[in-house]
């Protein structure tokens, strides 16, 4: 039998978890990863937290992803990249706070806008609101749906765990 106490307990456990699970952002949303897109504007319209994931999707014949230092980002210099990725679907978990810099290493692509700076805020800084309201602003945005799927997966796993705990407690 489920008493109000049990319901309260479940909410106490679930409520904080709903805002802690990492969101998944497709870089450029529906536009993906290519030149002639304002990734600075895109990045500033999202708030990235430790634990979130960013995903670059592109045609590997025409593009790649290079993580670079800040000076090389400013200079669009991909020759001394920290790492280069070219799978056409590269995900990065934002595992620490701070700035990360990515660009496309194909000639002139960075100069035409194919570069993105990601600022990651720490877990401890300000109670993180769910980023969904931001991504939901654009209904044509495919990223919000994939992002949502991820969240649902996590919540489902978490619910299973909570059910197990409750089973042992009561
Ligand atoms: Cu490119």
Automatic annotation (TrEMBL):
Presence of the UniProt keyword Glycoprotein in the record: yes
Domain Phytocyanin residues, every copy: 23-122
Keyword Nucleotide-binding recorded: no
Keyword line: Copper, Glycoprotein, Membrane, Metal-binding, Transmembrane, Transmembrane helix
Signal peptide positions (record): none
Membrane-crossing segments per the record: 7-28, 149-169
Record-level GO cellular component terms: plasma membrane
Pfam family, one: Cu_bind_like
SUPFAM superfamilies linked: Cupredoxins
Annotated segments matching region Disordered: 123-143
GO terms, molecular function: electron transfer activity; metal ion binding
PANTHER family, per database record: BLUE COPPER PROTEIN (PTHR33021), MAVICYANIN-LIKE (PTHR33021:SF266)
Listed name of the protein: Phytocyanin domain-containing protein
Organism: Gossypium darwinii
Organism classification: Eukaryota, Viridiplantae, Streptophyta, Embryophyta, Tracheophyta
């Amino acid at each position: 039998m489920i008493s109000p106490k049990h319901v309260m307990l479940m909410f106490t456990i679930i409520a904080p978890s709903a805002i802690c699970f990492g969101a998944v952002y497709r870089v450029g949303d529906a536009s993906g990863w290519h030149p002639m897109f304002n990734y600075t504007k895109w990045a500033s319209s999202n708030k990235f937290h430790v634990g979130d994931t960013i995903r670059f999707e592109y045609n590997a014949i025409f593009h790649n992803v290079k993580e670079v230092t800040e000076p090389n980002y400013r200079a669009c210099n991909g020759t001394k990249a920290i790492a280069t990725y070219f799978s056409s679907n590269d995900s990065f978990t934002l595992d620490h706070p701070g700035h990360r810099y990515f660009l496309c290493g194909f000639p002139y692509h960075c100069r035409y806008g194919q570069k993105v700076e990601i600022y990651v805020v720490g877990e401890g800084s300000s109670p993180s609101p769910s980023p969904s309201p931001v991504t939901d602003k654009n209904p044509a945005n495919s990223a919000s749906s994939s992002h949502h799927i991820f969240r649902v997966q996590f919540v489902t796993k978490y619910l299973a765990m909570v059910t197990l705990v409750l089973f042992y407690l009561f």
